[in-house]
Specification:
- The chain has a domain of 158 residues: MetI-like (MetI-like fold).
- It has 11 helices and no strands.
- The mean pLDDT is 88.
Length: 228
């Protein structure tokens, strides 16, 4: 099949709302969105704490977070697999090869990124914001929320960046999801499988959706990023 034939067939699959295309796209978006929310809830407080407080060992934590942002996805997938496998500490819950396992793995993957981005954003905030809030009687928690509110555009851009990282992720989804049709098959795992089988049309169709999502993510980041 030539490139033009594959592309034409891919467009036809998209226009016809092929069930495999719709299912893979839905699983990808569902898992990525949920993992992004969880990673934000875990990573933002850690990043804020590191950026806003001076303590012994802070540079070490900053270095660790920065290193973890580049952690290979297959390594995170292997770690998650080990934790959730039958002989792992959480094997009794039977989560392996489910969307829950994928969410757990992807949350582990992107939480350090969210923490590192938050650390950079809060580190660049005007320190007078927190000082003013404390002077006006706010608690430490209230002052922290004030800082985060002032930096909300940057934080939203960070969240979108995390989502973009996850929606195109392959290693974790493949290792702990198992690429099960209409259950854990995502756009990336479906592309890998169908391309290996020679079904370039379905691979192209899913690739076009990923391209559209990537475009939307980049537009959102450009819109939300604070103007310099």
């Amino acid at each position: 099949m030539s490139f033009l034939e594959a592309f034409t067939a891919a467009v036809h699959l998209l226009s016809a709302r092929d069930p495999q295309v719709v299912s893979a796209a839905a699983v990808s978006l569902r898992v990525s969105l949920l993992a992004t929310v969880l990673a934000t809830l875990l990573g933002v407080p850690v990043g804020f704490w590191v950026a806003a407080r001076h303590f012994h060992g802070r540079r070490v934590i900053e270095l660790v977070l920065s290193t973890l942002t580049a952690f290979p996805t297959v390594v995170v997938g292997l770690l998650t697999y080990t934790l959730l496998s039958r002989r792992g500490p959480f094997g009794a819950f039977g989560l392996l090869y489910t969307q829950t396992a994928m969410v757990i793995g992807e949350t582990i993957l992107v939480t350090p990124l969210m923490a590192a981005l938050t650390m950079a954003i809060v580190g660049g905030a005007d320190p007078r914001i927190e000082e003013t809030a404390l002077t006006l009687g706010a608690s430490r928690c209230g002052a922290a929320l004030t800082v985060l509110a002032e930096m909300r555009r940057g934080l939203l851009a960070a969240v979108v960046t995390g989502f973009g990282r996850l929606v195109s992720e392959l290693g974790v989804a493949l290792m702990v999801g198992g690429n099960i049709l209409e259950s854990t098959r995502t756009m990336t795992t479906a592309i890998a499988l169908e391309t290996s089988k020679g079904d370039f049309a379905l691979g192209f169709a899913l690739g076009l959706i990923l391209l559209a999502v990537a475009l939307a993510v980049n537009v959102a980041i450009a819109t939300l990023s604070p103007a310099h």
